[in-house]
Amino acid sequence: MKLSNLQIDPIILQALKEDMPFGDVSTDSLFSGNEQSKGKLIAKQDGVLAGLNVFKRVFELLDEKVEFNVYFKDGDSIKNSDVILTISGATASILKGERIALNLLQRMCGIATKTNTLVKAINNENIRLVDTRKTIPNLRIFEKYAVTMGGGHNHRFSLSDAVMLKDNHIKAVGSLKEAVAKARQNIPHTMTIEVETENLEQVSEAIKAKADIIMLDNMDVETMKKAIKLINKKAVIEISGNIDIDSISKKALPGVDIISSGAITHSIKAMDISLKF
Question: Which of 82, 217, 238, 251 is catalytic?
Fold first, then answer.
């Protein structure tokens, strides 16, 4: 997955407008614009990098003359005290972009780091750890990119990508079987249908309905084992529900294809990174 300027520029520009609706009164009162400064971007803890291009782009949009020397790349593991890059240019430009650039980078690195921790805990290259739509509105492209830098994969990007029939869809229609049939009639042949199940009865219904992907949601390990045996490769199997570092290895069962986690984007502690002149 790559991030293009076409995707990221509108997000950054909106963030800068929010942060400086009428300029930066602190910086503008101190500097004329000709002053020059240099700074170091320093890791304050171990982690996985994600979002360096986003960080740099904040300053480039403010001032195309700002320059960087970059010592790592996205996806790299870094240690506490590592100098990630140096920045040089107009003092005012660096000060104005600092907070937005750090906010985005720190969050993206936090996501990549947590994702990487869970991928290692799965310890099975045949099982994909994937994200969900539990992302901050308007930052999804950044957050899903960060997941891939941590070794994870992306679930659907939006409601337009694939059919996922959750409990409320099924209840509103009346039955799982009818929901799958209706969806199948109204989507292209290239689109998949995923069904969320919470018990073995629903798993059996999903199999009979020929769902492409069956999610085993919030099931205990023994029930999951029975469901996997029941499905017997008739559909892709996704595990979901309360996925954390303590439970993920127990749920990475033979026959599972995907483990999805909302926590890798919605419950993140930003990585500690500083920009020092």
Answer: 217
Which residue, among 204, 156, 215, 147, has the nearest Cα to 177 in the 3D structure?
204
Pairing of strands 258-260, 236-240: parallel
pTM: 0.95
Other Cβ atoms within 10 Å of 32 Cβ, number:
9
C-alpha dist (Å) from residue 238 to 171, 228, 252:
21, 10, 10
Superfamily for domain range 120-266 = Aldolase class I (3.20.20.70)
Residue 196: active-site member: yes
Is residue 140 part of the annotated active site? The answer reads: no
Q: Where are the domains of the chain?
A: 5-111+269-276, 120-266
Q: Mean pLDDT for the chain?
A: 96
Write down the catalytic residue from 99, 120, 133, 156.
99
**Cα gap 169→180, rounded to integer Å:** 10
Active-site residue flag, 166: yes
Please tell me which residue, 154 or 242, carries the higher pLDDT value: 154
CA distance linking residue 71 with residue 185, whole number of Å: 52
Residue-level pLDDT at 33:
83
Can 134 be counted among the known catalytic residues?
A: yes
Segment 59-84 shows an average pLDDT of: 98
Tokens 């990475």 locate to 252
Instruction: Domain 5-111+269-276: state its class.
Output: alpha beta
